[in-house]
Design goal:
Structural class: mainly alpha
Helix content: 55-70%
Shape: elongated
Oligomer: single chain
Radius of gyration: 21 Å
Distance between the termini: 71 Å
Length: about 220
């Protein structure tokens, strides 16, 4: 059954207003409704809202709603957001691109994003990069990611380790080189990442403690 145009226009206006409502529960329901019945007219508003939405669970629903639309319609707008001066806009666009998984977005995952000064943007870029990287370019990506070893607090370091490990065996020569870096934080992070890749069940905290022990002992403390 074809709905009268006036009714669909009214629904669109109501949906757009719902995405901007002061109540987070209303915004959540509006995003759910848009994702349940995808409509290209909402794409711009969904992307725009991602940049300013304060609630995590609403942002996740906005991302889900975007993934319900054709990638050919969402990816260009999300790529444009990667040039935004707003950190949340960049971070959420990267997160959404990683969920869509369209490798046409790969050229937009630049070194500047992978080394972004904002930890959340960088973490989102790392996750997106390992999903979108074309076959044969993993080593180049690993070479950029390894420059971030030793960065940030636990969650940032764990995100980087997971991204590197997801690239597979190609990271090993690069990690071994980093294990001899002049910066003890870089050495410890590289060692922890290598330990975690060999024994994922050991957990990141255990790998970090082992890495600290190795760094404290110096070259003699490292396993052959």
């Amino acid at each position: 059954m074809i709905m009268p145009k006036q009714d669909t226009d009214t629904d669109t206006v109501r949906g757009l207003r719902g995405l901007e409502d002061s109540s987070s529960s209303v915004r959540l329901r509006a995003a759910l409704a848009v994702g349940t019945a995808p409509d290209p007219r909402f794409i711009g508003k969904l992307i725009e809202r991602c940049a300013i939405e304060p609630e995590f669970y609403v942002r996740e629903m906005l991302t889900w709603a975007l993934t319900r639309h054709p990638a050919s319609m969402t990816v260009p707008g999300l790529v444009d957001e990667l040039r935004s001066e707003c950190a949340q806009a960049r971070s959420q666009a990267l997160h959404t691109l990683s969920k869509i998984g369209d490798r046409q977005a790969w050229p937009a995952i630049t070194r500047a994003l992978l080394t972004d000064a904002d930890d959340e943007v960088a973490r989102s870029a790392w996750r997106a990069a390992v999903v979108l990287v074309p076959g044969g370019e993993e080593a180049g990506l690993a070479g950029v990611l390894v420059t971030q070893l030793g960065r940030g607090e636990r969650e940032t370091r764990l995100s980087l380790s997971r991204a590197l490990i997801a690239l597979g065996e190609v990271i090993m020569p690069i990690l071994r080189a980093a294990m001899t870096d002049a910066d003890p934080r870089v050495r410890a992070h590289a060692i922890a990442t290598e330990r975690l890749s060999r024994d994922p069940d050991a957990g990141f905290e255990f790998a970090v403690e082992e890495a600290k022990r190795v760094v404290a002992l110096g070259p003699a403390g490292q396993e052959e």
